[in-house]
Design brief:
Elements lengths: L1 H23 L10 H31 L2 H13 L1 H8 L1 H4 E9 L1 H8 L8 E10 L2 E3 L3 E11 L7 E13 L4 E14 L2 E10 L7 E11 L2 E12 L6 H9 L1 H4 L1
Length: 252
């Protein structure tokens, strides 16, 4: 038994190393300059993590059970939410967010009754997902407004805007985080508006998801979550699955 678990640890270590090495080869969103490059990056990232989920499940299932039947069950389990997992890991390629100032310090003070004795404050005033029901392969827009305030005389604050996606796993009967993207900006105290988009891959499982928006600055943070329902697309996804699987030969 001890030998089996030592083998499990060794194989999983190699697996994690290979997966991490492949992930480091993916381009960042800032390096993508065309729609063709974006599609290629999405396909490569998605293929890497869906295959990774199935392989990881197979390794665990096979080594723990000691036979190929266990490996098969492990691969199936690993791939069950593999597409949702891949979406989270590739979220920076499937989601955008831009924010801009809408009111300065004085106007925000008047609107919120802020005073310097309150110290640093981060407050999300509004956040919405539209539409709340999305078909596989569709997209949803996000819109939010928030303010970041600091004592009078503060010129700039480092702000981190984070968007996160979670999936309701029926087996666990709870939402599990799939992935998140941080966006750092330097802003003057005041009010800001954030707009963006979440593209939903056509192969993610239908079900309940949560999109979270968090703003952090000067040791303070605020988070708002909205639930989104992904519904099955009318067209079959079989062809798409085959195309994604076919990319693994080039990737590996």
């Amino acid at each position: 038994m001890r030998t089996r678990y030592m083998k499990l640890f060794a194989v999983l270590s190699i697996f994690v190393f290979v997966l991490s090495s492949c992930a480091s080869m993916l381009p960042s969103p800032d390096q993508i300059t065309s729609e063709e490059d974006l599609i290629a990056a999405r396909n490569k990232c998605f293929a890497m993590y869906t295959v990774g989920g199935a392989l990881g499940g197979a390794i665990l299932g096979g080594l723990i059970s000691g036979d190929w039947k266990g490996a098969g069950f492990g691969a199936a389990a690993g791939g069950a939410i593999g597409f949702a997992y891949a979406w989270g890991k590739c979220l920076s390629l499937y989601s955008t967010l831009k924010s801009q100032p809408v009111a300065g310090y004085a106007e925000t003070v008047q609107k919120t009754n802020y005073n310097s004795s309150q110290g640093n404050i981060v407050k999300i005033e509004d956040f919405s997902i539209n539409p709340a029901n999305v078909l596989q392969g569709g997209s949803a827009g996000l819109s939010g407004s928030y303010y970041v305030m600091a004592p009078d005389g503060t010129k700039e604050i480092k702000v981190t805007e984070t968007r996160t996606v979670k999936y309701f796993d029926p087996k666990k009967n709870e939402f599990v985080e799939l992935g998140s993207v941080d966006q750092e900006i330097t802003a003057a105290p005041g009010s800001r508006k954030a707009d963006g988009k979440f593209d939903v891959p056509k192969d993610v499982p239908e079900g309940r998801y949560v999109i979270a928006f968090k703003v952090s600055a000067a040791g303070k943070e605020d988070t708002v979550e909205k639930e989104m329902l992904v519904q099955k697309a009318a067209a079959s996804n079989a062809t798409a699955n085959i195309e994604i699987a076919g990319l693994t030969a080039t990737m590996w």
